[in-house]
Write a structure and sequence with these properties.
- The protein has a five-stranded mixed β-sheet with strand order 4-3-5-9-6, sandwiched between helices.
- It is built from four helices and nine strands, in the order αββαβαβαβββββ.
- With 179 residues, the protein is of the alpha/beta class.
- The protein folds into two domains: 55 residues, Winged helix-like DNA-binding domain superfamily/Winged helix DNA-binding domain (Arc Repressor Mutant, subunit A); 84 residues, D-Maltodextrin-Binding Protein, domain 2.
């Protein structure tokens, strides 16, 4: 193993300049040596900062995030979730993209978006889905005629659905993120 003294002499030889002045009282850097050390220190600090920045970005704590969202989810839990994300990761620029489910999944496959948030599951993405929250879907309809009635208009017959469910019979709707 080489000693520090030997390594410094090898460095001076490679640089073609005396970096350290050696005396019986010790060693100190020359003017050229101090300039070299200042530059080397900046380079080491820049490399350390580059590694730290890469680690932060790879953990998703800095950079950009493009979120594809089905239009029906533009409020409520999604808004609260995105606000919490912004609070926790202020250095991440979040961009939202609105779209239909099939287009969002296509954008996700093409790396045009980073994540797609939607209510409907997709069999092709089932192994990559992460349930985010469940919400109760409530339907309110007036009391009256049977659930389905046929009406006639000047354009011909049309169907009008009238549903009457009790709140306890309505299953929860799960919202998932695909990444």
């Amino acid at each position: 193993m080489l000693t520090l003294s030997r390594r410094l002499r090898d460095l001076e030889h490679r640089l073609g300049s005396v970096v350290f002045e050696r005396t019986t009282g010790g060693t100190r850097s020359t003017t050229a040596g101090q300039e070299f050390l200042d530059t080397a220190r900046r380079i080491v600090n820049d490399v350390d900062a580059a590694f730290a920045g890469l680690k932060v970005r790879s953990r998703g704590e800095r950079g950009g995030l493009t979120v594809g969202v089905c239009g029906a989810l533009s409020a409520g839990n999604l808004r609260a979730t995105l606000m919490e994300h912004q609070r926790r990761f202020p250095n991440v620029d979040v961009k939202g993209v609105d779209g239909r489910r099939v287009l969002l999944l296509s954008d996700l496959s093409a790396d045009a978006i980073d994540v797609a948030i939607m209510t409907a599951a997709s069999a092709a993405w089932a192994d990559k889905a992460l349930p985010l929250w469940s919400e109760r879907v409530v339907v309110t309809v007036p009391e009256g005629p049977p659930p389905f009635t046929t009406t006639r208009s000047s354009n011909g017959p049309s169907w009008r659905a009238r549903m009457s469910w009790s709140p306890s019979a309505i299953p929860g709707r799960t919202t998932s993120a695909f990444c």
